[in-house]
Design brief:
The protein is mainly α. It has four helices and two strands; from the N terminus they run ααββαα. The two termini are 31 Å apart.
């Protein structure tokens, strides 16, 4: 029975997305300009290391965005721009981040893989 259960397991999933380097660089700049680290600990940002929101270390390995949303780039970008519109009870406020900046920030976050 154990062998049957083990054979039913899938291999570990690799990175879901392969963001391009330029988008990740722009994403880190946008993160710094928007001050995202005031609320989140974000690898690559030396200071501040906010604790109000969750750490974004290893974001690529997160199963669900904010514990409820499928972890897809389009939903993440929408959540970054206006979290309350995407998840009604979100404590993350809407931000003045543009759509392009949100896409780049999502690219940066998907590059934060534990692997």
């Amino acid at each position: 029975m154990v062998l049957g259960l083990l054979s039913a397991c899938k291999n570990p999933v690799g990175s879901r997305y392969e963001p391009d380097d330029a988008a990740q660089e722009r994403g880190l700049l946008a993160i710094n300009e928007a001050g995202c680290a005031a609320c989140h600990e974000i690898p690559g940002v030396a200071w501040p290391k906010g604790r109000l929101g969750p750490s974004l270390e290893g974001f690529d390995d997160v199963g669900m965005i904010a514990g409820q949303l499928p972890n897809r780039p389009d939903l993440l970008a929408a959540f970054i721009r206006n979290a309350p519109a995407v998840k009604r009870d979100s404590t993350m406020p809407a931000t003045p981040i543009t759509q392009l900046e949100a896409v780049d920030i999502a690219a940066y976050l998907y590059g934060l893989d534990h692997d």
